[in-house]
Specification:
With 258 residues, this protein is an alpha/beta fold. The protein has two domains: 6-201, 2-enoyl-CoA Hydratase, Chain A, domain 1 (Alpha-Beta Complex), CATH 3.90.226.10; 205-250. The chain is 47% helix and 17% strand. It contains ten helices and ten strands. It has a six-stranded mixed β-sheet with strand order 1-2-3-5-7-10, with helices on both faces. Strands 4-6-8-9 form a four-stranded mixed β-sheet. The longest helix has 20 residues, at 76-95.
């Protein structure tokens, strides 16, 4: 599939999606959101891919925000529709993928950019990365899940401060707050992502998908995450991966998962 705003590269078990709008600091517009949805959907259906890494092009930005020029004159109804469609098409879609997604934050991750990173399963960052939700400085609030995912990751108080001040935090601060898992140099960011991806790829993709569903269930209204875990745990016993994993353990060899 050919894209105008993103690049997709596959190598063995790993897929890399690069948001490629360097002149706009990789800002998210409608077309980019649609292309990202298509790319994630296509990769999700490719069972040879075990991990996805998401990064921005260049050295300045992961995603510097949404493309404000597209919605500056929207009505109330249009604004609500923008948020709902965006959340369903991309942000919630990414969060609920069964293929793990690592956000490699290689610069500014602001507004919709930070919201996209937070929708990924976890995040790593380069030392020059800056993160924030500046929406209130524009008279609006985060609309792509930022008010929900940021408190889940950093706690209510810190999330309130970040949102209300519209300020940016450094990569090291983000690590201290639990927003990112690792901080490294710009040059080592992708190698680190690939190293983590290789560790993930050794394990059962079927079990990892079940674990993603179980973890996400804890944050769904009206859903008992413990019950989802019990069901997913039980279902694991009926999979080929469970048979291979337990047999390999008993035979003192490394498992060979599909």
């Amino acid at each position: 599939m050919n894209f105008k705003n993103i690049l997709v590269k596959k190598n063995s078990y790993l897929a890399q999606i690069t948001i490629n709008r360097p002149k706009k600091l990789n800002a998210l517009n409608k077309a980019t959101i649609e292309e990202l949805h298509s790319a994630f959907k296509e990769i999700e259906e490719d069972k040879t891919i075990k991990v996805i890494v998401l990064i921005g092009s260049g050295e300045k930005a992961f995603v510097a925000g949404a493309d404000i020029s597209e919605f500056a004159h929207f009505s109330v109804e249009e604004g609500g529709k923008l948020a709902r469609i965006g959340q369903e098409m991309l942000f919630n879609f990414v969060e609920n993928l069964s293929t793990p997604v690592i956000a490699a934050i290689n610069g500014f991750a602001l507004g919709g950019g930070l919201e996209l990173a937070m929708a990924c399963h976890f995040r790593i960052a380069s030392v020059n990365a800056k993160m924030g939700l500046p929406e209130v400085s524009l008279g609006v609030i985060p609309g792509y899940g930022g008010t929900q995912r940021l408190p889940q990751l950093v706690g209510k108080g810190k999330a309130m401060e970040m949102i209300m001040t519209a300020g940016m935090i450094t990569a090291d601060e983000a690590k201290d707050y639990g927003l990112v898992n690792h901080v490294t140099s710009q040059e080592e960011l992708l190698p680190l992502a690939e190293k983590i991806a290789s560790k993930i790829a050794r394990n059962s993709s079927v079990a990892i998908s079940a674990a993603i569903r179980a973890v996400n269930a804890n944050f769904e209204d009206g859903v008992n995450g413990f019950n989802v875990e019990i069901d997913e745990f039980g279902d694991s016993f009926g999979t080929d991966d469970f048979k291979e994993g337990t047999t390999a353990f008993l035979e003192k060899r490394k498992p060979k998962f599909n």
